[in-house]
């Protein structure tokens, strides 16, 4: 898109979805105080974005209760190593849409600031978990780094088995790579 809206056409460019279960977009143990502090931090973020034309902004807390993670264990487990032992968690999902590419850097900066501050609060409160929900991780996040060594080795073994020439690791742009 050229960043300009055309007369008579509705346009939403740059749908930007990030999940950060508060960290580099990491999942965090549920804590009402943490949620309240995150909402307060988000309010500051929103204030910095008031001048962005046609912005739509949503912050969601998505629960990941142990009832879900315990069921995964009976079906082979979570491919990124999340287990019921991690406790009740939540993902923090930020969804923002706006009209022009001129605002990309500001929105990216504010999103990063929100997640950095939320991660710091989670660590201070003893609620931090490195797990990142892979499907919603932002390009500046690394959900693979939140995996322990055994999980990363398993991901690499699966990659070697089903993609022995490394096409998806070396020739396909984007995505998160397991050999970095």
TrEMBL record:
Keyword tags: Membrane, Transmembrane, Transmembrane helix
Transmembrane regions listed in the UniProt entry: 15-34
Organism superkingdom: Eukaryota
Protein name per the record: Berberine/berberine-like domain-containing protein
Species this protein is from: Friedmanniomyces simplex
């Amino acid at each position: 898109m050229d960043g300009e809206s055309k007369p008579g056409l509705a346009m939403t460019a740059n749908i930007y979805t990030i999940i950060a279960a508060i960290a580099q977009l990491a999942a965090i143990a549920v804590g009402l105080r943490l949620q309240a502090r995150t909402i307060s931090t988000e309010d500051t973020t929103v204030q910095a974005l008031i001048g962005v034309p046609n912005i739509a902004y949503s912050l969601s807390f998505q629960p990941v209760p142990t009832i879900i993670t315990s069921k995964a264990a009976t079906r082979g487990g979570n491919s990124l190593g999340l287990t019921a032992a991690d406790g009740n968690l939540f993902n923090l999902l930020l969804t923002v849409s706006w009209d022009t590419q001129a605002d990309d850097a500001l929105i990216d900066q504010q999103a990063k600031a929100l997640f950095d501050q939320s991660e710091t609060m989670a660590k201070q409160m003893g609620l931090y978990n490195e797990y990142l929900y892979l499907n919603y991780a932002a390009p500046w996040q690394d959900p693979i780094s939140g995996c322990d060594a055994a999980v990363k080795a398993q991901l690499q073994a699966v990659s070697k088995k089903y993609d022995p020439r490394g096409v998806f690791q070396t020739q396909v742009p984007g995505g998160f790579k397991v050999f970095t």
